[in-house]
Structure formats: C-alpha cells, structure tokens
Amino acid sequence: MPALLVSGAQWGDEGKGRATDLLGSKVDYVVKFNGGNNAGHTIVIGKEKYALHLLPSGILTPGVTPVIANGVVIDIEVLMHEIEALRSRGVDVSKLKVSANAHVITAYHRTLDRVTERFLGKRQIGTTGRGIGPTYADKINRVGIRIQDIFDENILRQKVEAALEFKNQVLVKIYNRRAIDPEDVIQELLGYRATLEPMVCDTALLLHEALEAGKTVLYEAGQATMLDIDHGTYPFVTSSNATTGGLITGSGIAPQHLTRVISVIKAYTTRVGAGPFPTELFDEHGDFLRKQGFEFGTTTGRPRRCGWYDAPVARYAARINGVTDFVLTKLDVLTGLKKIPICVAYDVNGVTHSEMPVNQSDFHHAKPVYKEFEGWQEDISGARTFEELPAAAQHYILELEKMSGARISAIGVGPEREQVVVRHSLTED
Ligand code: GDP
Ligand code: IMO
Ligand code: MG
C-alpha cells in the first residue's frame, strides 16, 4: 500500500508539479490536501505547457483518479474553469473526486484577502489575493462553508447569512467597501450543485480503501515548508500546513501508511511575496537566476525573488517533513556560472547559527555564510545519468547532499518530462 508524498522544501515553486508528473505513470490516485488556487504548477509535456492551480498535477497522467481532499480550500468557479480548460485539451477529468468536508472560497473571502492586504500597507504579506487566508480563518473560527453545505439549501443559507452579518460590518465600516448580498453568494453556490454532485464523496474513506487494496496514492502538497503556517517564516506564510503534518489532517490518511516523503528543492532559492530570505541576491546574479530560470509566478506572474541555495533551510525541511528523498530541480539554470556559492550557516549579529534560528527576528537579520563551488559551462540538459553530468556538477550535487539531510534521488536538468537524472527510484525500495 504505497503512499507517497511530494512537497516543497523552500518557499514554493520548486517544481513540485513537474516532480509529481514524473511519478505519474506509477500511481493510481493523486491527491491535493492543502492550499487552494494560490498554488501554480507548470508542467511541460512535449510542446504542451499546462498551468494547474487547484487540480492535482498528476491529473495529466491517463488513468489516475485525481482527488481534492478535505484540507483544500476550493474556489468552485476556478475549479470549473480548470476542469473545462483541461477537457478542451483532451485531458480526462471525469474521475475527479472532491471531499464533502473541503471548505469553500467565496466572493467575500477574496474581497477580504485583498482589502486586508491593502490595509496592512508596508506590513503586507504579498498574498496571491485568492481568498486563502480568510477562508482558512473562517474554518478555524467555525464559520466556514463546506462543500457539503451546498447540497442543503437551508444550512447554506443560515451559514452564509450568519457569516455575512459580521463580515459586511467589517467591509462597510472598516474598509469602506460595499456590502455583499448573501443571496448572490447563495445562488452562485447553488448553481454549482449539478456539476459538483457526482464528484463529491468521503475522500478519506475512498483513499483508505485504495491503500488497503494495494493501490499507489500520491499526495501533492501545495506551497512549501517555509510557507507552512506553523513551521514557516510566520507571518510571511500561507494559511495551511504544507508539511508532512498537513497531509495527515488534510486528507485523513493514517501516518503508518506513508512510505515515501519526497521533497522538491531547487538548486538555488526563490520566493514570491514578502518575508525574510537570507540568500536573496540584488545584483546581476539575481537577474541571471531570474532570467535563466524564468522565475515569474505561475499564479500571479510576479517576478520571483532569487538567491543561492540555503543548506540550513534544506536541513530544516528534511527534519520537519521526515524527507526520505530530495528531487533537486533546475540544476541546468546554474550552467554558465564560474562559481556557485552555497549558504552553509548564518551570521546573526556576529553569532554563527548552523541551523535555522528559532527567533524570527534573528532570521530576519541572518547574513549567509557561503562556501563556494566550481561551476560548469557545458550544457547539461541532455544528461540522463549522473555520470553524464560534468565533474563540477556532480561535485556540487554530492556536496549539497552531504549538507541537506537526505539523499538526492533525482535531478532536473530541464523543464521537460524526460529531462531528469534519476539516481534512486522514487517508488521502489
Ligand atoms: P511548483 O509550484 O512547485 O509546482 O513549481 P512551478 O511550476 O510554480 O515552478 C517551477 C518551474 O520550473 C516550472 O516552470 C517548471 O516547468 C520549471 N522546472 C521544473 N523543473 C525544472 C528543471 O529541472 N529545469 C528547468 N529549467 N525548469 C524546471
Ligand atoms: P506553489 O504551490 C510560491 C505565497 C504568497 C505569499 C504567501 C501567502 O506554486 O509552490 P496566500 O495567497 O497563500 O495567502 O499567500 O504565500 N505563496 C506562494 N509562493 N508558491 C506558491 O504555491 C505559493 N502559494 C502562496 O506569494 O507570500
Ligand atoms: Mg508554483
């Protein structure tokens, strides 16, 4: 009963979608268990490029059953568009299952996300504006709307009216915005009933039975360790658990089922939105990484902040998640650099920290301590075995591996499906 997890080790956009796609042919179910359409995964198959937000990336593999589990927050309009867009490109989405317990992102969550950010001014998080934070806040406050509520008009009405009674006061009196008519929200949600109905089920039971029957289930995290609400750089984080713990609550899987914890990590680091980022580069090297790596957001199109590889972050991710295998992506982007620095520790006001400082202010003031490695000039995008990589690239990988707390089992040498070097199988022992 193999259950595999693919998650992000840094601040997102590590290439999780691509790594998931790599495993696609071996799996029966692909499951998204946290976040919502704040995620953006780009997958390149031949000449086709797909950008997915709410649907699990594994959906592109014929035969798999895609599942949106209870921990996800769902903007149903976005879900419908994404289903339609894939259908029109010939992708089979008919097997999609959606948890009855997942929470719903409504118009008022999106509005509140945007106005709260504006209100924060200089202290803003730089959210994706998709309503993620306000929807999770409602879930925790026990005033959220769940997918199952849409099928009980009375309950839906009560919940939406109760939520808006309070939120409209906030929107009008604090943010000087127009009130939202509960009827508009209710009618919109009721309108999705017929399309949603065949998809909605108890996904925890479905997946439990699949695992018991010996099926392979791949769980895909959105966002990443450093954006995790508990373990990330709070408050500059998303509002869900993107780490291994989030899988347990977000899907209802029992921990003993989990056989492999695969974490995706870039050969350098990027971040979108605000918050601390010790290895961030403001010079021509930052521009080089952004340009070579095409580091612009899949969801918002924002240029990503770029910096060198941060080994304490990798070790932190390895510990928090129990990583068994790293997938190192975008090694090809480093081609052409004479020297490649890796952050091995931080200097915080004259004190060396070899691990992530527990105090957030220390992390804000952390200056990277670098060790430099030789670069390589050869094009590596055609390499398919470790031995085909230039000696300097091999050395870089082996040094990263020593510092990062888990083995590096696969290496991305280009965005396309087959542009990968596999050192250890990600599915077999
Ligand atoms: P995700 O959110 O973790 O799924 O990652 P994104 O899709 O937002 O960003 C990763 C980007 O890197 C995508 O555009 C991928 O096509 C691209 N990518 C993934 N792996 C590689 C690689 O090994 N080399 C290169 N050059 N690009 C890659
Ligand atoms: P994937 O799955 C990168 C960032 C936002 C912002 C913070 C909070 O593609 O790796 P939110 O809208 O979630 O409340 O925003 O988190 N963020 C991401 N950054 N990749 C993502 O997803 C992200 N999802 C959220 O930029 O800083
Ligand atoms: Mg992304």
Task: Please give a quick description of this structure.
The protein is an alpha/beta fold. 32% of the residues lie in helices and 21% in strands. Guanosine-5'-diphosphate binds next to helix 1 and strand 3.
What does this structure look like?
The protein folds into two domains: 3-93 and 202-422, Adenylosuccinate Synthetase, subunit A, domain 3 (Adenylosuccinate Synthetase, Chain A, domain 3), CATH 3.90.170; 103-196, Adenylosuccinate Synthetase, subunit A, domain 2. It has a ten-stranded mixed β-sheet, sandwiched between helices. The protein has helices spanning 16-23, 76-88, 107-120, 132-141, 153-174, 182-190, 193-196, 203-212, 244-251, 284-292, 311-321, 360-365, 391-404, and strands spanning 3-8, 29-32, 41-45, 48-52, 65-68, 73-74, 97-99, 103-104, 200-201, 217-220, 258-266, 269-271, 305-307, 309-310, 325-329, 339-348, 351-353, 367-374, 407-412, 420-422. The protein has 429 residues and is α/β, with parallel strands linked by helices. It contains 13 helices and 20 strands. 32% of the residues lie in helices and 21% in strands. Bound molecules: guanosine-5'-diphosphate, 6-O-phosphoryl inosine monophosphate and magnesium ion (MG). Guanosine-5'-diphosphate (GDP) is lined by residues 8, 12-18, 39-42, 44, 298, 329-330, 332-333, 412-415.
